[in-house]
Give the backbone structure.
Amino acid sequence: GLKKKEVNVLCLGLDNSGKTTIINQLKPSNAQAQDVVPTIGFSIEKFKTSSLSFTVFDMSGQGRYRNLWEHYYKEGQAIIFVIDSGDKLRMVVAKEELDTLLNHPDIKHRRIPILFFANKMDLRDALSAVKVSQLLCLENIKDKPWHICASDAVKGEGLQEGVDWLQDQIR
Ligand code: GTP
Ligand code: MG
């Protein structure tokens, strides 16, 4: 058959936001891990969509590992940035990390698509995707295509919409 186009994606966001859970759900069921544990350093994962073959750098969001992220920025052709919509206290930390990412020389002048997941929408006190995008000032991102989806990574809800958008940006 036709070979799918290969795309490197960086999966970024604070620890406990749900990055590994999201990537795990996107993998074929026979490749999915039974339980997800906090990522140490980073992990390389793969999943496919109808036209693309994604290689994901699933980075740890723990403070002590965040300095690893920038070493992979050059390789990344797309970014998935995950936010825990229930973690209001650390929304400002998520914004700081996002701003640092957007101002990095390897990202700043590139028209790289960014897919945001406002994850954990199932939590009773979760902020809406609109509220998350306001708190992160996403409307200020003018030089890159971006999109935000509410998701529940445990149930797998909202993920397909996001990945469909990402695929459209790359084709
Ligand atoms: P690091 O690897 O430490 O950076 O964390 P991570 O962003 O990869 O988070 P991970 O996927 O390990 O998920 C952290 C915890 O949140 C796990 O207990 C998940 O089951 C839980 N979780 C992930 N997504 C959701 C969600 O949509 N809703 C709820 N309620 N829990 C979620
Ligand atoms: Mg992880």
Q: What stands out?
A: The helical segments are 19-26, 91-102, 105-108, 129-135, 159-170. Residues 13, 15-21, 36, 38-39, 60-62, 82, 119-120, 122-123, 152-154 surround guanosine-5'-triphosphate (ligand 1) (CB under 6 Å).
